[in-house]
Recover the amino acids of this structure.
């Protein structure tokens, strides 16, 4: 698979929904755009001329996937990827960030909290519980703005834009494409895939029994006491046709004894990405998506304004020829496993909590600075 084709997915898959809305019309697109709140300030400086933007300046887009309404932890991000486009070098860095990474999250200039990175978007979206946030981290754009800041600090560069899609939008786009075909590399089972409708089911236990179990157990031992909350997923090796719901389960599965964990899940998400790209090219993306743009607009958020998105559309033919470098932050390069003070199993930098120096070097040098770095499929 050519890396330029993977880039076509990045914009034509997740951002493709946004591009279609742009083509259909500004009204549909405007429903997806969220504008950050700005602090009220008075400037005593005289206005200055706006410098001409450099057409070859690098820019980056944060891509987020999350559950959405009706899902437990609806605004916890299940997938985090950053595309850094560098026109001068004709290269694009695609960086996958694991959701269990432990980070410092600034609420305002004086206060910060430590949480997993998949909670950042949620914290930005929750103005009631986190009422002490800076104004730019509030409102509909708060989640994206806070995620851009925190993830940018982890990676060592400013993130310009974000685009997010929830699970229902993901399912609808794949179903509207008629499903996708994925070549599963090996047969595997996941005995603990959560059933959304049963997430709080007591599985026949009394309230007293649940209280005792919750007080004396945690983690997998506690999960084992409530088998009705989970279903067993099974995927056979070889080519499989998947509808939206099945593809989502395939991409989210993380409890397989033989193929579990966040890093294996990241690889499956790439398989789904390539499959969507192939389907889009084969059947004609626009004709399939246009009928559901109004529905899909409820499942997408972005801060890419109409003018900027129009420029991205114009650039697509050039960008599709760029060299793609795919980088994944893992425990095989710059991260290590740890346990937070809360008892959670987490990932953190090998140099210590919130020390991102080695991560920055890894990104700057495309993984060359670290002998075990993962650089996948360069042209």
């Amino acid at each position: 698979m050519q890396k330029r084709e993977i880039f076509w997915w990045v914009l034509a898959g997740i951002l493709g929904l946004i591009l279609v809305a742009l083509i259909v019309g500004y009204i549909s697109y405007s429903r997806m755009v969220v504008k950050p709140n700005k602090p009220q300030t008075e400037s005593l400086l005289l206005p200055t001329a706006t410098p001409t933007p450099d057409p070859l300046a690098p820019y980056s887009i944060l891509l987020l996937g999350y559950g959405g309404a009706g899902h437990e932890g609806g605004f916890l991000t299940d997938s985090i990827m950053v595309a850094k486009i560098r026109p001068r070098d004709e290269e694009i860095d695609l960086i996958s960030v694991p959701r269990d990474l432990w980070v410092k999250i600034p609420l305002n200039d004086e206060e910060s909290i430590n949480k997993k990175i998949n909670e950042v978007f949620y914290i930005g979206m929750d103005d009631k519980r986190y009422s002490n946030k800076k104004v730019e981290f509030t409102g509909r754009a708060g989640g994206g703005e806070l995620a851009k800041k925190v993830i940018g600090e982890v990676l060592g560069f400013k993130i310009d834009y974000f685009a997010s899609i929830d699970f229902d939008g993901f399912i609808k786009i794949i179903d509207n494409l008629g499903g996708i075909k994925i070549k599963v590399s090996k047969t595997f089972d996941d005995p603990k895939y959560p059933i959304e409708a049963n997430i709080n089911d007591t599985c026949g236990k009394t309230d007293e029994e649940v209280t005792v179990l919750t007080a004396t157990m945690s983690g997998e031992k506690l999960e084992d006491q409530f088998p009705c909350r989970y279903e067993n997923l099974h995927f056979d090796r070889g080519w499989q046709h998947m509808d939206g719901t099945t593809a989502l389960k395939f991409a989210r599965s993380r409890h397989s004894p033989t193929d579990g964990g966040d890093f294996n899940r990241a690889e499956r998400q790439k398989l789904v990405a390539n499959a969507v790209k192939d389907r889009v090219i084969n059947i004609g993306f626009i004709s399939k998506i246009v009928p559901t743009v109004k529905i899909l607009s409820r499942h997408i958020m972005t801060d890419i304004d109409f003018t900027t998105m129009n420029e991205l559309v114009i650039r697509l033919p050039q960008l599709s020829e760029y060299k793609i470098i795919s980088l994944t932050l893992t425990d095989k390069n710059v991260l290590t496993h740890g346990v937070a003070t809360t008892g959670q199993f987490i990932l953190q930098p090998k140099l210590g909590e919130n020390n991102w120096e080695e991560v920055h070097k890894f990104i700057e040098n495309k993984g060359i600075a670290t002998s075990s770095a993962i650089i996948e499929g360069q042209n």
Summary: The chain has two domains: 3-35+55-182+260-376, 193-230.
